[in-house]
Automatic annotation (TrEMBL):
Domain of life of the organism encoding this protein: Bacteria
Keywords, ordered alphabetically: Transcription, Transcription regulation
Organism, scientific name: Aminobacter anthyllidis
Keyword Glycosyltransferase in record: no
Protein name, per record: TetR/AcrR family transcriptional regulator
Stretches of the chain forming a coiled coil according to its record: none
Amino acid sequence: MMNNAKRGRPIEYDRDLTLQRAGDLFWSGGFAASSLDALSEVTEMTRPSLSGAFGDKEALYIATLERYRDTSVAAMTTILSAARPLRTELAEVYAKSTDAYLASDDAARGCLLIGTASVEAVHRPAVRQVLQQSLGAFNAILEQRLRKAIAQGELGAGADAAGLASVASAVMHSLAVRARAGEPRAALDLLSKAAIDLICGKDPADTIS
């Protein structure tokens, strides 16, 4: 006998909110320690629903990494618009990055990519690819801004934009690791200022006349 019962409608969900909640769990506990049951609980979706929406646990993790990267890239692009002095814009990038690295109800979490994806990248090629693409995206934004600074005379004509972009990006990664290790905000801010002085030259305001 044919079953004429209507199929239930697919459960609707907010993709961005789901990725935010899953990302928070991965960010705090890492990939391996974040169980499917815990992910189901924080996202308020059943395990079959999560699987239907994202695939397996690794696919969900990668989706959270991509969301984090895209959000970070958008924020950096907005700040590094060349509408203000390079020093001012770099200071804001570092300050807001540090805010995010330290923001947690418990211990500081650092950066989702640097803190968790760098661990999983060793054995998970798909994660390694996302990490590589993300680091490349951050470098590209910084390099573009540094090239504008050279063109506008903020940096010397012989400045190495690509090299300085790698330095600027590496400082962000260091801030993330140091924040996760428990370094105080004052120490992180000193590192940020030293990096900006290295890239832009000593701040004239620090010169004692």
